[in-house]
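dumping this here before i forget
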Amino acid sequence: MKRVYVNEEWCLGCHLCEYNCAFANSGLKDMAFALKDKEIFPRIHVEGDDKITFAVSCRHCTDPICVKSCIAGAISNNDGVVKIDKNKCVGCLTCVLVCPYGALAPGKDGIMQKCELCLDNVCGTPACVAGCPNKAIVYEERSEAE
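structure:
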């Protein structure tokens, strides 16, 4: 299955992946209107320091612990894509505590959100991948050993 991977050595720490993600998931057609002077809630986050930066997003684990730990049953694994049912999420943050990658965060309304590979958006590829100027973020299939 294709997943989002980050090549840390190419990441500039520019945060454009975050802005492209927030825009793609805003449901709006104008990026300036969607994001200007607003707090953004991207589903990918740039972490790091002055020596190395990298983007953190959901790894869509084969055996996701967030699915097992969700007390509301809001997180599911559908054909390898881990998704959150926003109508079921109660915002308890249990998934945040158990995710070993730090891939989940509350959105504007307190409901949890995470990368869902832009499958519900019309992007074709994840917005973070399309918007990365240095091609540090890729959407590809890799073997389990990598």
